[in-house]
Amino acid sequence: MDAALLLALGLLAQSLCPSAGVPRLRQPRTLYPWRRAPTLGRVRRAWVIPPISVSENHKRLPFPLVQIKSDKQQLGSVIYSIQGPGVDEEPRGVFSIDKFTGKVSLNAMLDREKTDRFRLRAFALDLGGSTLEEPTDLEIVVVDQNDNRPVFRQEVFTGRVLEGAVPGTYVTRAEATDADDPETDNAALRYSILEQGGPQLFSIDPLTGEIRTVQVGLDREVVAVYNLTLQVADMSGDGLTATASAIITLEDINDNAPEFTGDQFFMEAAEAVSGVDVGRLEVEDRDLPGSPNWAARFTILEGDPDGQFTIRTDPRTNEGVLSVVKENPLRTSLAEGAAPGTPVATFSARDPDTQQPQRLSYSKDYDPEDWLQVDGATGQVQTQRVLSPASPFLKDGWYRAIILARDDAFPPSTATGTLSIEILEVNDHAPELSPPWGSLCSTPDRGSGLLLGATDEDLPPHGAPFHFQLSPRVPELARNWSLSQVNVSHARLRPRLRVPEGLHRLSLLLQDSGQPPQQREQPLNVTVCRCGQDGACLPGAAALRAGGAGISLGALVIMLASVILLLLLALLVALLARFRQQSWDKRLLHGLQDDLRDNILNYDEQGGGEEDQDAYDMDQLRHPAELAALGAPLGRPPLRRDAPFGRARPQVIRALPTSPADIADFINDGLEAADSDPSVPPYDTALIYDYEGDGSVAGTLSSILSSLDDEDQDYSCLREWGPRFSRLADLYGPP
Questions:
Q1: How would you label 303-320 residue by residue, b for 16+ Cβ within 10 Å and e otherwise?
Q2: Band (32; pLDDT cuts 50, 70, 90)
Q3: Which of 186, 194, 175, 289 minimizes the C-alpha distance to 236?
Q4: DSSP conformational letter for 706
Q5: How far apart are CA 218 and CA 197, in angstroms?
Q6: What sign does the CA torsion over 692, 695, 701, 703 have?
Q7: pLDDT at 144
Q8: Cadherin domain: which residues (predicted)?
């Protein structure tokens, strides 16, 4: 029976190569793993099945891989099974086998970066469960696809190089990784520079990522920092890409000489005064401010043969300070913040009167801060308290005092000595964040990050460059955030991965360059917001912008509640004021309606003058019959515009006079009613009366239209109307 065994190998080792694209559905090849090749005089050995290759990320599932068979039984009388990772071990269910046909299928997408191969065991049993063949190995190899982009190890690479460096000088190195198979082109990385922001002064090795200079002309005084955009691509440069930045800082060299700002400087010095500053000499130096290459040294070449002047350098401004030294002041130096009792100097005077030995004593003549103490017998000077760095008498780092020496003769003779003390800068301040808050985008691919700055109260060289570092006490900070140096005084903070929106409190460690260096751990409030394509926070983003100032949620709630309470109080006050005003208006209106004569009325128009032809319609004075003939409308006169509230008082129907004696009372009552009625013109204007009709009992009131001559008029009856009309009777009546 063994002689009849044959091995039919239809292998699928390269059946699913990535370059072949998506394979079509096909019938799997049949393998006979238990057949043995015939040999003469030897023990026969089973064939080893070559690995079966299948591409990762295969989407057409289930996908037939292979079919295994045993020729010891007829078809349908053998039960096939497989075991191992991907079947009955994690990850389960990836592979399966048809127990009657022996067809092995792929049921799930494969990821080579998680599992690059599967080793299974194949079994063949008869229908009764007895073993027909010995178990055999079945290995499935996952073929890599280019499904992973390369990733730079850092978002920002930094490097430093001296200005004027020769071509080929090493600057820094960029590194990237790729999760694809390193044995394939899917992980074959190539580096390049996309943008340099100017001339092509740098190059990058495509294989190693080393960045070097390629041209001369690096000048820090022209460009101090270069920002390069790097790219890495797999497939030997033709595949997936990623980008990063490289910030290259040029270090200063002493390649610029200081220059005076003017050809001549004019100064004046008082006679017989020493230890005082005469003036300043301004210079310019293009080297890095605060560095040794920038600090100027001044020398008097000629014009001062006796050495009466000296020039020292102001470390803050780099100016030369010219001072008089003709009386030879005593110069010394002390460290900033010297403790009380620190020795400063010793003055020693000599008395030229040798024939009369005398005893000398020492004292202070000028000490504006009362900082020094002088031993009267020895002339030793020491500090008696700490001098404030903010003292107004500390000029350019120098403090001046005058010491007096006196003998005991009568009268005593005196001499003065000038003491100039230089206060040496001490690194006694740690750098501080400026400002200690800011905002950035929640995702690493949006925005430029948060630019952090630092300041230091100390003078160079105890200040910049500063070193920024995430606090080592909190290791999780380095997993979520990256901090890269930008220049000597700034650094850039970025998230390594997506971080939640809102306020994040970070802790940073800052260190200066003094000796010994000072460092300080400081909190940084970072507001993380959702950003748009331009890297700016979107309106209505979940980030709490006020959190940058360190305002907590509880404080905001209290502030909001206070504002609402103030608004409610203001509304209540306004309602009370309105209610009181309405009550007052009602009382005032009631009083006006009770007696209008007790109030002062404002009349906008006086009218009624001889030349006033516009205030009132003069045609109304004509006879109503003539007005009707002219087509003029008859009706109520217009209301007075000065009447309060524009309301007319209802007219009272009065009885007509029955005799001439009653006419005076009738007219007086009418005048009083007109004076008090706000709805009619005032009494000193022509009043408009309605036409009473023909046959009136009272007769015609006026004859203005009936006659233009006064000769036929008899005004003697006016005397009977009372004292108001007696004047008219005298003017128009008979003498």
A1: eeeeeebbbbbbbeebbb
A2: low
A3: 186
A4: T
A5: 14
A6: positive
A7: 83
A8: 71-152, 153-260, 326-433
